[in-house]
């Protein structure tokens, strides 16, 4: 296994190419000045990263294909290992294969896997299973008002950090007496401390000033009380960051009237689900916001609101922005920052053009048009790209 | 004639309620009816006769001031009622939220059982007290089995909001779900909270929702749930809703997951008509809707049980930070009192006060701080009373 600094040091590469000096220079295209060559960071296996790709259901497969297309066009040194998960089967082999692939590669990009309601309750949500098995404890969603999208509110910039593995999503339910169902919501000290620590560290790294904990401790005194206590403990170790807390119902009400007051929000699982969806709705809908799930050793990227989008599948009307921005987060995670910012800039310039807006933004554009426009924007900004 | 004496004031902890019967019951009622029929305001109202009420034609309603802005707003309600000569007497019961004992709360519950109807402010849940001290509001709702919390969110004409034409009724299960207050720490550092969903309560709330939708002529009921994750719990709730829906073929029934619901609410709230849901989602969704129509100061809420009804502001805010500053918005509490009057079948008084409140809301210069204005609570209440007087009703002096 090669662990050198760059491909110059790779003996295999040097031997396989006939003329090493000219091979390292980009191909000369007629009528254009020499484009800038982006330096590749150290990667295993010949300078290329391998990322697991789980297409999922609904609009997942088509969006994943667009991501592959875009990456190939930009010559991003990422290879995708596609693992299909069939949501109609009851056996867990598919999802176990996917989990093994993610353990192998360390990083994944996924579409949402549908949870079929007709299957028995013992059949757990596949997405939930993936998150808990890989211990992806932090779900981070950055909701930002995008310049080209018209919304009721302006200047929103909220990072929601949601505990991803416990809380109401423990899938522990039982019917001890017929007609009476008990669902267990688990809050533990270790996980609450972990997520609070993650939140404050992220706030510090990104230069954020305030962290708000969202809870319902007036009703769930022990459970959310413990969560709040852990957040307060962690907050004492970060004196430069202001910490405050807010009850979830007041939070949602404030979010729809004055969302600009929020900076970073940390919360347990269910409130995180609701609050992140409210934030996504405020900045323009599910088609715009990317989401990331981070664990100790693994990271999985997907759209922020985890929609399957069955009703618009294969109609070429889905908004690819969320998935493409998620792939940019993926590239940032792999330290391929140059490619990430290049693609991100192109996406933002495309979004500004309201002619290209897809149906969810009130326009009539199609997915392929948007992706085409992004690729045009990348080509015009100069880096080496494949031919269309 | 029978009359009741009520003593209230800031210094009294309990209410003295004395009813003195000086004549046989039947004669009392006849006398009362005669008195009522001959009163001036009835002549002005025309044919409308208030329904027979107990104890001399006047209803008695329990009043729980609560904390924060509760006491001042309820004072204003009493003021307006006295001004409009509404035949309602208030029996005030104070609940001290700083005490750990349940006596105050038990007194309040007994009073509501006695009177059947109550108007309350929110009672604060102090975080410094131990966890065994349950939320007083919650205890009230579960003891009286007020199973349905109904909130009607409507865009008010005088209030500027980002979304227009919102008209959503939210029916929320009020007694079980996540608010069962059943928690334990079996292993230190691991807390389990139980969320209970029962078939009986789910069918009951679904039935209430569909009956209400039918009465109000609504076309669609949406059940809000998270059954993809909580398959047994919310799955049971959804199943009960579907069962009940099959008995109401004139009403369309659909369901939506709570995260999608909140996202749709902030982008396109006009698509929703009637929504029914378990306790916690109801809390969040009703607060989102309240925020959409203009804030916590505008929407009234009602808790209905089989035998009792309690009225309060919809978002149940204590408003400690604006207490006694004369800047709280009295609209929510006044509209809640109108709902109470509707419940008591005093519909004329209800529509009178409601119209007055809505007319006052149209005037932007009277808007209080939460609506972006600089008006005070007392100005708003004065204006409401002036509008009522201008309608020509029999009123006390201003």
UniProtKB/TrEMBL annotation, chain A:
It is found in: Mitochondrion. Signal peptide: none annotated. Pfam families: Iso_dh (PF00180). Gene3D superfamilies: Isopropylmalate Dehydrogenase. Its main location: mitochondrion. One of its GO terms (molecular function) is NAD binding. Keywords: Mitochondrion, Transit peptide, Tricarboxylic acid cycle. Residues 23-44 are annotated as: Disordered. GO terms for biological process: isocitrate metabolic process; tricarboxylic acid cycle. Belongs to the isocitrate and isopropylmalate dehydrogenases family. This is Isocitrate dehydrogenase [NAD] subunit, mitochondrial. It comes from Maylandia zebra (zebra mbuna).
From TrEMBL, chain B:
Keywords: ATP-binding, Magnesium, Manganese, Metal-binding, Mitochondrion, Nucleotide-binding, Transit peptide, Tricarboxylic acid cycle. It comes from the Eukaryota. It is found in: Mitochondrion. One of its GO terms (molecular function) is oxidoreductase activity, acting on the CH-OH group of donors, NAD or NADP as acceptor. Its main location: mitochondrion. SUPFAM superfamilies: Isocitrate/Isopropylmalate dehydrogenase-like. Residues 60-384 form the Isopropylmalate dehydrogenase-like domain. One of its GO terms (biological process) is isocitrate metabolic process. One of its GO terms (cellular component) is mitochondrion. Its cofactor is Mn(2+); Mg(2+). Belongs to the isocitrate and isopropylmalate dehydrogenases family. Heterooligomer of subunits alpha (IDH3A), beta (IDH3B), and gamma (IDH3G) in the apparent ratio of 2:1:1. The heterodimer containing one IDH3A and one IDH3B subunit and the heterodimer containing one IDH3A and one IDH3G subunit assemble into a heterotetramer (which contains two subunits of IDH3A, one of IDH3B and one of IDH3G) and further into the heterooctamer. Regulatory subunit which plays a role in the allosteric regulation of the enzyme catalyzing the decarboxylation of isocitrate (ICT) into alpha-ketoglutarate. The heterodimer composed of the alpha (IDH3A) and beta (IDH3B) subunits and the heterodimer composed of the alpha (IDH3A) and gamma (IDH3G) subunits, have considerable basal activity but the full activity of the heterotetramer (containing two subunits of IDH3A, one of IDH3B and one of IDH3G) requires the assembly and cooperative function of both heterodimers. This is Isocitrate dehydrogenase [NAD] subunit, mitochondrial. It comes from Maylandia zebra (zebra mbuna).
